[in-house]
Amino acid sequence: MLRPLERRDFSDLARWLDAPHVRASWRDQDASLAHLESKYGPRIDGASPVAVFVVAVDGAGVGIIQTCPASAYGYWPSELGLDEAIIIDGLFGAAEALGRGHATAALQVLARSLLRPGGEQSVIAACTARANHRTRRLLERAGFCLVFEGDLVRDGFQAQCVYTLRGVQPDDGFRNPDETADRSDERTVQESSP
Length: 194
Known about the structure:
Elements: E1 2-4, H1 10-18, H2 20-23, H3 33-45, E2 51-57, E3 60-69, H4 76-79, E4 86-92, H5 102-114, E5 123-129, H6 133-141, E6 145-152, E7 157-166
Parallel strand pairs: 4-5
Antiparallel strand pairs: 1-2, 2-3, 3-4, 5-7, 6-7
């Protein structure tokens, strides 16, 4: 379901960036191959702290998810006390794959790999525009909890929502400590795609 981005994916990535539903919310909209090489080439080569994964469904790429340590991101993680977080973002460019649960499953698989018991990471954070209801619902379905809503002034982001997902229980299911202690709120993760 997730594999590292490769240069052979640039034509798909360019097409996804040009998709109307992506252009409506993705900040960096330059889909030229020169720009993709400049931005994503170092990430592919391991010369950047950002890791990029292609979300694949039945072998075909449909979008990307990126991870980055908070220390290499903008100001907002430290402003919100998320210095140790892994920041994620991504896009689902293949319109035919939208609304089928693939993004939720991909996020859950990524979270499981990042937040495994005994691992170094204990929190994942994501930031999206308040008006981006599709992404907000996706994060909530994947078990993330809203921890901030407002302007992130130092980064120049207006009307943002920040979500986090914390920790993993020994039973291999997720339990977000941001939620109440009621076990009925427990979120479990399925490794298989829908």
